Amino acid sequence: MKSALSLRHWFYPAVAAAMMIGLSTPVAGATPHASAGCAEISVPVALAPGGPVTANIAGGYCVPAADPGTTLQILIPGATYDRSYWDFPGFDGKYSYVRHASGSGKATLAIDPIGVGKSSKPSGVQVSAYTAAQTVHEVIAAARKGELGHRWDKVVLVGHSFGSLTAMMEAGMYDDIDGLVISGASHAPGPGGILQIQRTVRPALLDPATSDSVPAGDYTYLSVPGARATAFHAPGDSDPAVVAADEATRVAGTIGVLATIPVFIPTTFGIDVPVLIANGRADKVFCAQGGGGSLTDCASADSLHRSERPYFPKADVSTYVLPRAGHSINLALNNRAFFERASRWIDSI
């Protein structure tokens, strides 16, 4: 693990992962989707390869009731999000990727990454990009072995923002998946978009929204209050009520993760499975069109392909741009177009 840098350096590169218990119990606080049985699960994991199993990854596991199929999507949220990014509550389910997948007969496991939500929360300096990838690797192994109640022949990682970076790193290091969906990410984050987030950073213990969700006395967990409206959403393609709900449900990220973000970059050169890259055209962090200084051209699917293809020399890369959308494309007004594109692509691999 790389040593921690200054607070500025933690945020500058980008801001900005077994056994099941309770499979028959619905996810706490949620109504199972009509076409799937949903359960709260917990997968025991080690924080390092070959290390002791001292932690767990929690998730919401939704499997089609009639036919589970052979493919499991493991959904990884970005920094300052938990798994609810993939199953956003309220609004009649309009912003739920999980609900859309369930409706089309697809199984999903939306996880809380290590250090987030109901997953284990070690000291923030222990939770690095390496740790995030390692723990996702162990969840994949559990899924393939049948330890989630069904043996999955195909596993597709689906990430958002830092969750996409985790997914790329996991795929490049462990070569154990069948497909990779990257959303809200590129290899060239823009300094302007990052600074919109960086200027709000504070210890999570000092943010009322996150203070009760991090280890007591641990100042290595960080929060970014007030950043979502300016950095994650595009005003012309978002519901103000959704933006407010998104801000109210922010979660903490860790110093260890943010200090090691750049290590994902070389791992993508070894990825040899099909890849779909999907960005919002107005993403302020990862796309030039968002105005944050990124060098990634998200004007069209073709231009995004030209920008990102060199980083995946061994992979079959497809690209998609969601018009008008910002960084958090699941929460855009036109999110369904992305959901449907991802669903069709997963069917094709």
From TrEMBL:
Classification via InterPro entries: AB_hydrolase_1, AB_hydrolase_fold, AB_hydrolase_sf
Pfam families named among the record's database cross-references: Abhydrolase_6 (PF12697)
Annotated signal sequence range: 1-30
Domain named AB hydrolase-1: residues: 74-331
Biological source species: Gordonia insulae
Q: Cite a single GO MF annotation.
A: hydrolase activity
Keyword list (alphabetical) reads:
Hydrolase, Signal
- Supply the name of the protein: AB hydrolase-1 domain-containing protein
**Annotated GO CC locations:** membrane
Question: This protein's superkingdom?
Answer: Bacteria
